Amino acid sequence: MKYLPPLNYIRSFEASARHLSFTKAAEELRMTQAAVSGHVRALEQFIGRPLFYRAPRSLALTEVASAYLPALQRALAQIDVATGQVQTVRHRKEVTIACPASLATNWLPERLSAYRAENPEVEVTVHATIWAESTEQIVDLRIIPRHVSQPLVGESLGEERLVMVCRPDFLTGPDPMRVPADVLKKGLIHILGRQELWEAFARHHGIPDLPLVQGLKTDSSNVALEMAIAGLGCAVTLASLAEVHVQRGLLVEPFPGKIASGWGYDLRPGELSPTRASEKLMQFLLKQI
C-alpha cells in the first residue's frame, strides 16, 4: 500500500482517458476543468511518466496510460461494487436476534410488538436458544444469560428478581393461601437444576422447614409455569418469564418481594455487520429495562 496515489487523481485520469477530454471529465465528475487537469498532472508527477499527449484541441493516451488504464478501471469497478454491498447491508431492514427460549416465549414478544408498531418496515427473526447453548446461528443481536459472578458481555438488560406465582383461585375459596408458608397447602413445582429458587423464597420469607424435595418436577421454566396455570402447585421462577402470564390474569404473585435471583441478561451485537435496524432494536430493548 506504499505506492497508492490519491483516489481523486485516479478518478480524474480515468474519466479524462475515457472521454479523451478534460472538459468532459470535469462535467462528469462535477469539478472544474482546471481541477481535473491539475489532478492528472499530479498523477503524472506521482508515477514519474506522462499519461497524455496534449495537443491544442485534443488528448491522446501514451503507451504507459494505455497499459495503466484497464487495471485502474477494474479497481474502480471493484470499489464501486464493494461500496454498494456495504450500503446494502447498512440499509438492510431485517434483524435476527438469538434469545434464550423461555425469554423469547414470555418476555420478548411484547417488546417486539412495541418495536414493530414503531418500525413496521423491519422484519424480525427470533432464534430461540437453550439456556446454556452455544449456538452456531449467525445473528444481528444476542441476548445471553449471565450470573452476577460473571463479567458483563455487551449491555446489561438488568438483574432478574424471583417471583412465586400460582393460580388466582389459590387465594380464594376453601383453605386459601394467606401467608408465604401456605404454599405447602398447594404444593411446590420444582425446576430441575434450579433448587436454589425455592431456597431463596424460603430464606426471604423466613420459612426454615419448607420441604425442598417434595412436589412436581420439570426441567423447563415454561412447563413449570404451565403446571402452575393448571393448578398443580406453586412455582418460583424469574420475573420476566412469569410476567406475561400475570398480565393475562392466568397467574398471580401473592407475596411480592425483591428476591434476587443472581441472574440477568446481557444484550450484545451478533456476528453480522451492524445495520440501522439492528442498532435501533438494540437501543429499544435497552430502554425496556
Ordered list of secondary-structure elements with their pairings:
Blueprint: H1 7-19, H2 22-29, H3 33-47, E1 52-55, E2 58-61, H4 63-90, E3 94-100, H5 101-106, H6 108-118, E4 123-129, E5 141-147, E6 155-165, H7 183-186, E7 188-191, H8 196-205, E8 216-218, H9 221-229, E9 234-238, H10 239-247, E10 259-269, H11 276-286
Parallel strand pairs: 3-4, 3-5, 7-8, 7-9
Antiparallel strand pairs: 1-2, 5-10, 6-9, 6-10
Helix pairs in contact: 1-2, 1-3, 1-4, 2-3
Descriptive notes:
This protein has 289 residues and is an alpha/beta fold. The chain has two domains: 7-90, Arc Repressor Mutant, subunit A (Orthogonal Bundle); 94-286, D-Maltodextrin-Binding Protein, domain 2 (3-Layer(aba) Sandwich), CATH 3.40.190. The chain contains eleven helices and ten strands. The strands form two sheets. An eight-stranded mixed beta sheet has the order 4-3-5-10-6-9-7-8, sandwiched between helices. A two-stranded antiparallel sheet has the order 1-2. Helix 8 links the parallel strand 7 (188-191) and strand 8. Helix 1 crosses helix 2 (22-29) and helix 1 packs across helix 3 (33-47). The radius of gyration is 33 Å and the shape is rod-shaped. 27% of the residues are buried.
